[in-house]
Amino acid sequence: MMMMMAMVSEAVRTQLIAHDRTIGVHDVRLAELDLRVQCAETTNYDGILIWKIIEYKRRKREAVTGIRPAYRRS
Fold first, then answer.
1. In the chain, at which end, N or C, are there fewer CB atoms within 10 A of the end residue's CB?
2. Phi, psi (5° rounding) for residue 9?
3. How far apart are alpha carbons 24 and 19 in whole angstroms?
4. Over the stretch 45-66, which tens digit does the pLDDT of each residue have?
5. For residue 60, what are the domain limits?
6. Dihedral (C-alpha) 14, 20, 24, 25: value to the nearest 10 degrees?
7. d(C-alpha 48, C-alpha 45), whole Å
8. 68 neighbors 62 (Cβ within 8 angstroms)
9. Any domain includes 70
10. What is the number of structural domains in the chain?
11. What is the value of pTM for the model shown?
């Protein structure tokens, strides 16, 4: 009887490991799909290009006060 329970326990442990791996694969795939959805939500196909300006308030203040030009090439 103990031998039978040990075999069942090992089988359950093996299934648990397999399910854990499957969940890990699904988590990675879900993260990839989430990123694709985020990209699709921010994609624009009407010919208008939208720029994200990092630290806009600081850059505007510097341009107004003459510390830096309003725009420049990187």
1. C
2. -65, -40
3. 9
4. 888 777 778 888 988 888 888 8
5. 2-65
6. 50
7. 7
8. yes
9. no
10. 1
11. 0.48
Residue 71 lies in a domain: no
Instruction: List the structure tokens of 26.
Output: 């699904």
Q: Which residue has the tokens 């359950």?
A: 12
Which residue, chain included where needed, has tokens 């879900």?
A: 30
At 37 the pLDDT is 92
The C-alpha torsion from 35 through 38 and 39 to 45, rounded to 10°, is 160
String of DSSP letters for 47-71: S------TTHHHHHHHHHHTSS-S-
In the predicted model, what is the mean pLDDT of the chain?
83
